[in-house]
Amino acid sequence: MAMALPVPGDEFPGYDVGDYEGASVEQTFELFSAVAPKGWRVELTEGEIKVVPPANGDHEEIVSEMSGQVRDQDKRMGRYTNVGLCLPDGSKVIPDLVIAPKGSYSDREDWHAPSAVLLVAEITSTSTAGRDRVQKLRGYARAGIPVYLVVDRDAGEITVHSRPQDDHYTRRTVHDLGAVVPLPDPLGFVFDTSEF
């Protein structure tokens, strides 16, 4: 499902679309973010704007299960599902799940530096799988995020990337969906994916 893009003459309250002719990618990103329907995510990944519809129920069940397991295993960790991260390459992304110490995002900012993040998780879908596996992996590694977990529903796998270096991770472990997945330091606990 795709969101209709603004065209000259369309009416957006508070915005004159004509002012955006010849706009930069960043300015266009701001416009799309301002007019996206509630629940839709607008991301800027390696210079490309993507508008993503709300997640389906299966996706949200996985995020909920992961969040609950983090809560049960380490009460000091915050579980965030709508945190905007600014990555070093200029990308602005909203991961499906961010794990960081509680209080890391207690301000009112829309976009945050990724310095407090210990883990980001993405649950793939038909429309996001390519970005989750490639562009976001590079962006999260560049940001120095210690652990990147990908729940690949199509492949039936969980991939844990760790030890970021430049634009890649030097360690990668793959587990079948349904397995108990150990998470490396700085987390040091497990995800039981049998409920995924």
Give the secondary structure arrangement, pairings included.
Blueprint: H1 25-35, E1 41-45, E2 48-52, H2 57-73, E3 77-80, E4 84-86, E5 92-93, E6 97-101, E7 111-112, E8 119-123, H3 129-133, H4 135-142, E9 147-152, E10 157-165, E11 168-176, E12 180-182, E13 190-192
Report what the structure shows.
With 196 residues, the protein is an alpha+beta fold. The protein has a domain at 57-192: Alpha-Beta Complex (tt1808, chain A). It is 21% helix and 31% strand. It has four helices and 13 strands. It has helices at residues 25-35, 57-73, 129-133, 135-142, and strands at residues 41-45, 48-52, 77-80, 84-86, 92-93, 97-101, 111-112, 119-123, 147-152, 157-165, 168-176, 180-182, 190-192.
**Rg, nearest Å:** 17 Å
Spans of at least 5 consecutive residues with low confidence: 6-12
The named CATH superfamily of the domain at 57-192: tt1808, chain A
The dominant shape is globular
What level of helicity do the residues show?
10-25%
CATH topology of the domain at 57-192: tt1808, chain A
The strand count comes to 13
- Based on the coordinates given, report the CATH architecture of the domain at 57-192: Alpha-Beta Complex
> What's the CATH class label of the domain at 57-192?
Alpha Beta
Compute the number of helices.
4
Largest sheet: 6 strands, mixed
- Report the structural category: alpha+beta
- Largest sheet, order of strands side by side? 3-6-8-9-10-11
Strand fraction band?
Answer: 25-35%
Give the topology string: H per helix, E per strand: HEEHEEEEEEHHEEEEE
Q: Overall mean pLDDT score? A: 90
Compute the separation of the termini in Å. Answer: 24 Å
